[in-house]
Amino acid sequence: MGESEKALVRARGLRKEYGSGEGLVRAVDAVDLEVARGETLSIMGPSGCGKSTLLHLLGGLDRPSAGELWMAGRRVDRLSERALARLRRYEVGFVFQAYHLMDELTAQENVELPALLAGRSPGEARRRARQLLDQVGLAARADHLPSALSGGQRQRVAIARALANEPQLVLADEPTGNLDSTATLEVLRLFEALHAAGLTLVIVTHDERIAATADRLISMRDGAFVDETHLAGGTRGNLADLAGLGG
Amino acid sequence: MQQEVVLAMLAKEPSQGSQLRFRLDRALGPLGEAINDGQIYVTLGRLEKVGLITRQLAGASSADRKVYELTPAGQERVTEWLSEVSWPKPDLAEFHLKLIAAAAAGLADPIGIVDMQRRELLRRLREVERAAMAEPDHSDAGLLLEGIALRLQADLRWLEACERIWTDRRSK
Amino acid sequence: MGRLLLVYRLAVKDLRYRPAQAVLLLLAIAAGAATLTLGLSLRGTTDNPYARTRAVTNGPDVVASVFPGNSNASGPTASVKPGGSNTPRAGAGEAAATPLLPLEHASGVVAHSGPYPVTWTLLQIGHTTGSAEVEGRNSRSSPVDHPRLMQGTWVRPGGVVVEAAFASAFGIHVGDSLRLGGTAFRVVGTAVTAAIPAYPGTCGRPIGCFLVGNIGSYNPGLVWATEADAEQIAGSSGPEAYLLNLKLNDPAEARTFVNRYDASASSSAPTLYSWQDIRDGDAQVIAKVQKVLFTGSWLLALLAVTSVAVLVGGRMAEQTRRVGLLKAVGGTPRFVAVVLLFEHVLVGLCAAGVGLLVGWLVAPLIDGPGAGLLGAASAPSLTGATVALVVAVAFAVAIVATFVPAIRAARQSTVAALEDSARPPRRSAAVISLSAHLPAALLLGARLVVRRPRRLLLSVFSVAVTTSGLVAVLIIHARSATWSLGPQVIQATTIISVMLIVLAAVNAVFIAWTTALEARHPAALARALGATPEQITTGLSVAFLPPALLGALLGIPGGISIYDGARSGGGTTTLPSALWLVAMVVMTLLVIGVLTAIPTRIGARRPVAEVLQAETA
Question: Which of A102, A119, C113, C251 has its CA 20 to 30 A from that of C521?
Answer without folding.
Answer: A119
